[in-house]
Amino acid sequence: MSDDGYVHGYSSRENRRLVDQATTLVELLHWDTRFPADTDVLEAGCGVGAQTITIARNSPRARIKSIDISADSLQEAQDRVARAGLTNVAFQRADIFDLPFAQASFDHVFACFVLEHLRDPRAALERLKRVLKPGGTITVIEGDHGSAYFHPDSADARRAIQCLVDIQASMGGDALIGRRLYPLLVDAGFEGVTVSPRMVYADASRPGLVDGFTRKTFNAMVEGVRDDAIARGLIDLATWDRGIRDLYRTTEPDGVFCYTFFKAVATA
Length: 268
Ligand SMILES: C[S@@+](CC[C@H](N)C(=O)[O-])C[C@H]1O[C@@H](n2cnc3c(N)ncnc32)[C@H](O)[C@@H]1O
Hints:
With 268 residues, the chain is an alpha/beta fold. It contains nine helices and eight strands. Strands 1, 2, 3, 4, 5, 6, 7 and 8 form an eight-stranded mixed β-sheet that branches. β4 (106-112), α4 (121-130) and β5 form a beta-alpha-beta unit. The two termini are 24 Å apart. S-adenosylmethionine is lined by residues 1, 3, 6, 8, 18, 22, 45-47, 50-51, 67-70, 73, 95-97, 112-114, 117-118.
């Protein structure tokens, strides 16, 4: 994929969303993301560094190389990591499909919310496997928008979410990729594939999740495709507005929102 063919875009609003998402989900996704001292880790598709901060902090003695195809995102990631005072990360502009690294250069690969945007995620995994040392590990984290369900339920809200799924598919991505991580990793030649579903459950007793995940991560992501969805005729404006209203309705005191991420670990 080129650096301009990405469903969520590179706006400052989207960059804020990625950081909100990472901050809210740190414990759920990363309590067990740890890389040992003196190992080389490749972070593929680091974006604005939202996950980089966590992996660098959690593994202070690992050497992390974070790559992205977008120069602007890399610059922002670099600034963010510097502001956090972390010194174990180096950045490089690179394409996952054309990696500028020798075979067997890394002990670990980490890729979060990247495969869902790629036309050929299996080929991407094969490329990443090549730069892993034999016995090295890969950690992949992806969402799956089909795993979103909520109370009160709403057909209009489900239609709005489906617009995002359809637009991402039309750009060659797969917003339902979480459920495919196991077969993708097996097909790419990895061994010992273990997938751990991580469910977000947000009700009024967890205001941090309601705000950080339901409002600022999930709803903001769906809202981001409004103009595109209308322009493509995927939905009419009235249905869209009702759908978005109903998504926010789930953040009220009697509302509930559920979503599942999938975290896979496998060996090269
Ligand atoms: C949704 S963002 C995720 C960023 C980060 N991992 C996070 O979780 O916040 C996906 C990132 O993958 C990058 N990307 C997409 N295709 C790529 C490719 N072929 N090579 C390297 N990076 C790529 C995009 O530029 C974008 O920054």
